[in-house]
Every structure is written in C-alpha cells, then in structure tokens.
Write a structure and sequence with these properties.
Layout (H helix, E strand, L loop, with lengths): L1 H23 L2 H14 L4 H13 L3 H10 L6 H14 L3 H10 L5 H13 L3 H14 L5 H18 L14 H14 L2 H20 L6 H21 L3 H13 L5 H15 L4 H11 L4 H4 L2 H17 L3 H14 L4 H13 L3 H14 L4 H14 L3 H9 L8 H13 L3 H23 L10 H16 L3 H14 L4 H14 L1 H8 L5 H4 L5 H5 L16 H10 L44 H5 L12 H4 L41 H10 L6
Length: 681
C-alpha cells in the first residue's frame, strides 16, 4: 500500500511537471515526464495521448504515428483520430489521412479544418470549397481570417487549373495573402493588368504588416515578398516582357528562399524563356526542380509541366535516349495527353526519321480520336516539310471538324494552287459552301421564312468566284456571282463582276444586266478637285498657267519674301570633247570597277634593270617597231566604241583622253590642278 501511495504521489508530481512544461511550450521536457509516467502505467491513455502530442510538437511525426499504431487497442480512432490524420498529412500520406478523417465517428472542428487541407492537397476543389464555407458559417473564433484566406486560395486554384470563372466571395482584401490569392484568380482568367495591380497592393500591405514588427529585418521582408515578386515576373513573361521577367526571376533566386516549390517554379519558367538557347543555364536550373520535397509543394499540372520541359531540354541538348525515356514516362502517366507523343515525334524528326514520326502520330490519332485534329495538323506539317504537299492536303481534308473553317479552306486552296490542281481547289470551296448550306437548313428547322446567308458563307462564295475567274472557269464563277447578287441586288461591285464575266461568255446577257447599273449621275462623286490637289500629302499639284497679275503679285510679296532661285551652272565639257563619239557608259565608275580594267603593271622599269646583254637598253622593242604607229588600231576595242565608231578608229572615250598636242610635263599638270579646272562631265 505504501508503494502504491508513493507511486501515485510520484505520478501526481510528474503530471504537474507535464502541465507546467506544456504551458511554457517546453515539449521536450514534458516528453521526459510523460515517459516516466508510462513506466509506472504503460497503458495510461492520457499519458499516451500526451506523448503523441509532444512528439508532434517536436516534429517527430513518424515516431508519433508509430506510438499510435502500436497502441491501437488503447488509442482507438475516436480518441486519437485527429492526431493520427495530422501525422499522416504531414508525412504526405494524403489518401491515408482522408480515410482516417472519414472513419472518425465524430467530426470535430479540428477534423473539419484538416479535412479542408486534405481536400486541397488532393485537388478536389469543389469539395474543399464547400468544406471551408461550412467552417466559416459555423465557426466564430480568432482563426476566421485564416479560413477566408484558405477559401480564396481554393477559388484561385479553380480559376488557374480548372479554368472555372471564380465567383465573388465578397471578401475584404485587408491582408496581403487575400490580395495575392485574388491576383492568382485574375491570372487564371487572363486579366493580367488587373492582376498586376493586385500584386502591387499585396506587396504594399506585406511591407506595412512586417515593418510593424521590430524584430523583422529587410532580408526577412524580401524573403516574404519573393512569392509575390515571382508572380509579378510570371505576368511579365505572359505579356512578352521576357527580359524584365528574367531579371526579376534571377533576383529571387539570389535571395535563396527556403520554399523549394517557389524555386522549382521559377527555375522552370526561366527554362521556358531560354528555350533552345542558353542551354548551359537551363541545365543548371533543372537541378532546382529536382530538389527534395518539390513533389509535395506543387500541383499535378505544375509537376507535369516541369517534366515536359525536362524532356524538351533533353531533346535540345541532343540527349536522345533521355528524351525518349522522359516522354515515354509522361505518356504512360497521361496516355491521352498530346505533348509526350509530339515530343517523341520531334525527336524522331531531329534524327531524320520523318516517316517513323508520321507513323507514330497516326497511331496516336487512331487510338485517341478526340485529339486527332491537332495530331493530324502536325502530320500535315511534316508532310509539307518533306515536300509531299498533296499528301498533306489529304490529311487536312480528313479533319472533318475543320473542313469548313475559312482558315482551313484558304490553306487547302493555296496548297492545291501551288500544285496546280485547280479542280481539287474548287472542290474544297464547293464542299465548304455546301456545309454552310446544310447548317443553315438545320438551324431553320423547316421554316418557310427566307433566311439570309451568314457572312462567312457569302465570303466563301465570293472567294470561290474570284478564284474561278482568275483560273478561267467563267461559267462556274457566273453561278456563284449570281447567287451573291440575289442575296444583295444593290451590290454594284458584284454586278460589275457578273457583267464582266458574261461579256466573255454571253455578250447579250451582259447588255441586259448592264441596265441594272446605276446611272452616271448617281455614280458621280462630288469631289473638289482643287481642294484635293492642294491637300496635305498630294503627290501631284497642277501648275497654274499664266503670269501673276499685279494685285496677286503684291499679295504674294506681302505674305513673305520670295526666295531667289539659284541658277545652275552649266557643266564644263572636256577640251577634247567630240560630240560624234559615244561616251564611255562606265565613265562614272572608278577605274578599278570598270569591265576593261586590267590592273597596273607595278615596277615595270625596275624589273627590266640589269636584264639582257651588257650594253642593252631598257627601251621596249615595240617602240622601235615601225609597224606600231599611232594610226594602227589597238589590240582590243574600248567599251562603248563599237556602235558609233568604225573598227579602225583609235579614239579613246572622253574620260580617258589626254589633251591634244604634245604630252605635258609633271610640273604643268600640277599647275593645272592648282587652277581647279576639272574635266569630266
């Protein structure tokens, strides 16, 4: 009895110690006291609960969960459901946490709060939104602001990942977290300018709230602002301001934030800016996306985008095996997603295996008809790159949902025209026009009231008529033009085209139709010709004939002094200019650029010094040859002298001529240059 009484007294003292440590937040010391209590009574439920709480407070979630699983008979789900679910949540066992919460017999407020967090991590946003609305409606405590922040985060996630138009929650954006979440929702809607203003407001509120705490340094504020700045940079990137975005991204990385999710997103965005350039920087940034715990911080779509970019980077860095491995893994995770198969096809094209790439795309289109349109467009692009335009047209025409689209019709007609297959091009027009006729018949539901054709339908008919006229199919064009004229009898342009077409086929019919043209009086335009000619930007102004009268001359002088026109001096002709000789057409070109220039013979006299027998002169033999006189023709005619001058003439073009008479000395030439009398013309 005395031992039992001593044990009870010791336990009471230990419980007092546990209570005191718990109030002081010293859970490590409290844990020691709890362990001593459990030595006295190992199945004490309260002591086991306290041990689990102490371990959770110290961050030992695995050990806390082990204690719960070891004492399942004592710690039933009703007693310890919240602690068990919380440990599973913190250990990223989200599915297990959900099962633990749902199996609890009583849903306490704590479990409901955790339930909302679990649903958010599982990306079940509709259920999460309902859970937080219920919490806000039925709770009144100091955590109301946090619940509203979580609610706005759910709405932002719906807008971003599910493209759901967010509803107005009527939340007062008094904190920077609420402003930030509102900005994210606006980004999901594509309202980038409004989102940027919200982020600027969030930055201002964040600085104000943190600066009130004297213990918070500027580095702490910048670290807290990193996520806001990251979102600002993302908006800049979406707006095409890639340089500004890149600069802001790098500033955030230099701060070395502890949030691995933020670093991974920023690194991924930098890789998308670099694309196939600056590959070395991209390979360094990829390491940030592989940090431990990233998979628990980002959504599934974010993780998927990072994996896609890894595969593309492997392709750009010529890591073919790595690219195939990553894209195959992505395809196994998302069999219906387009990007993995497109990446594989792109890699095959880089390896010059175009036929294999087309086959791969065809297999995917057959297995997933819902995504066949985009795949077939890629197949057509590959066929065009190979020069198989006709096969590309066949692939494009097999996309039934796009056959009638104006863009597709235009592309097919252009391609068939390039291949000079006019019949196929006209067939494309005909099928598209028939589709719109059938569509109109379906929308009318058998109504007898005349319904006008749609603008797209009329535009296709007009383009078909113009195409047929251009390629000589006048009779076919006439039927299209008549259809257009029936739709709008007041369209003079269509009537003129119709008359022009009939004039080549049936002149009498053209005369009859010409009576429908408006008269010349109604067609005349009331235009002031003088005002039009004198208007700003007129390229031609009619000169007024006749001299100014005395009054007009005085008016002109009164408005301002008339500038005197400088008389142009007549160019001087060379002294030896001969009007009978055709000038050299290349006289304006520098000597080196003329067709007959053969280059200067450098050092001719120097090369001849010391050559030949002793006592010989350096005079060329040509000077002693009596047959080579001034009257003998040159060895090759000068350009420009063949038409107007006979073959035996030795006249040099004026630009090349020297003054007639004896050759001038060097001194005289220098004197002439000083006088400034320049020849040439």
């Amino acid at each position: 009895k005395m031992a039992a009484a001593a044990g009870a007294a010791a336990a009471a003292g230990l419980w007092s110690e546990v209570n005191r440590c718990g109030q002081n937040g010293d859970f490590a010391r409290a844990l020691k006291s709890v362990n001593k209590i459990l030595q006295i009574n190992k199945d004490d439920v309260t002591a086991l609960q306290c041990k689990v709480v102490c371990l959770i407070q110290n961050g030992n979630f695995k050990e806390a969960l082990a204690v719960i699983n070891t004492h399942t008979k004592v710690l039933t789900s009703d007693v310890i459901a919240f602690e068990k679910a919380y440990c599973e949540y913190r250990l990223n066992r989200i599915e297990s946490a959900l099962k633990t919460i749902q199996s609890a017999s009583q849903q306490t407020d704590k479990l409901k709060e955790l339930y909302g967090q679990v649903l958010y991590r599982l990306e079940r946003y509709d259920d999460c939104l309902a859970a937080y609305r219920d919490l806000i409606r039925n709770s009144q405590d100091e955590y109301e602001e946090e619940r509203k922040t979580n609610l706005s985060a759910v709405v932002a996630a719906q807008s971003t990942w599910e493209k759901v138009v967010p509803e107005d929650l009527g939340l007062r954006e008094a904190t920077y977290e609420l402003c930030y979440n509102s900005a994210c929702a606006l980004i999901g809607q594509g309202k980038l300018n409004e989102a940027m203003k919200k982020l600027q407001k969030a930055e201002e509120l964040c600085r104000q709230s943190l600066s009130e705490d004297s213990d918070v340094t500027e580095e702490d504020i910048e670290a807290e602002l990193a996520i806001i700045h990251g979102q600002m940079a993302y908006i800049m990137q979406l707006q095409g301001r890639t340089e500004d975005a890149l600069q802001l991204y790098n500033q955030i990385i230099k701060l070395k934030p502890t949030d691995v999710g933020l670093l991974a997103v920023i690194a991924n965005n930098i890789i998308t800016i670099n694309k196939d350039q600056n590959v070395f920087d991209s390979k360094k940034k990829v390491k940030l996306t592989n940090a431990e715990g990233v998979e628990h911080k980002l959504s599934k779509k974010q993780l998927q985008a990072i994996e896609f970019n890894k595969a593309l980077l492997a392709m750009y860095t010529n890591q073919a095996d790595q690219c195939r491995k990553l894209s195959a893994s992505l395809q196994s995770q998302s069999p219906e997603h387009l990007l993995p198969v497109l990446i594989q096809a792109a890699q095959l094209c880089r390896e010059k295996q175009h036929a294999k790439a087309v086959g791969l795309l065809q297999d995917f289109a057959d297995q997933h008809p819902a995504n066949a349109a985009e795949i077939k467009l890629t197949m057509a692009q590959l066929k065009i790159a190979q020069g198989s335009v006709t096969k590309a047209c066949m692939i494009l025409r097999s996309i039934e949902e796009l056959q009638h689209k104006p863009g597709m019709v235009s592309a097919l007609v252009t391609m068939y025209s390039h291949e000079e297959d006019i019949d196929s091009a006209i067939e494309v027009f005909t099928q598209a026009i028939q589709w719109y006729q059938q569509y109109q018949a379906r929308t009318n539901h058998g109504c007898c009231v005349f319904q006008p054709k749609s603008p797209v339908h009329l535009s296709l008919i007009r383009e078909a008529a113009n195409f047929k006229l251009k390629h000589g199919r006048k009779k076919e064009a006439i039927s299209d033009l008549e259809e257009l004229w029936k739709q709008n009898p007041k369209d003079v342009h269509t009537l003129a085209q119709l008359i022009s077409a009939y004039s080549l086929v049936d002149p009498e019919k053209a005369k009859v139709l010409s009576k429908h043209l408006p008269s010349s009086d109604t067609m005349s335009l009331k235009v002031d010709v003088d005002a039009l000619e004198n208007s700003h930007g007129a390229t031609y102004v009619r000169k007024k004939a006749g001299k100014l009268t005395g009054d007009n001359q005085q008016k002109e002088q009164g408005q301002g002094e008339v500038k005197k026109k400088k008389k142009k001096k007549k160019g001087k002709l060379p002294k030896n200019y001969d009007p009978k000789v055709t000038p050299d057409p290349e006289r304006w070109l520098p000597m080196r650029e003329r067709s007959y220039y053969r280059g200067r013979k450098k050092g001719k006299k120097k090369d001849q010094v010391g050559k030949g027998t002793q006592g010989s002169t350096t005079t060329g033999s040509s000077e002693l040859d009596a047959s080579r006189t001034a009257s003998s023709p040159p060895t090759s005619p000068r350009p420009g002298s063949g038409a107007a001058v006979s073959a035996t003439s030795n006249v040099i073009p004026p630009r090349h001529q020297k003054p007639a008479g004896a050759p001038a000395t060097k001194k005289k030439q220098q004197q002439k240059k000083k006088k400034g009398a320049k020849g040439g013309w």
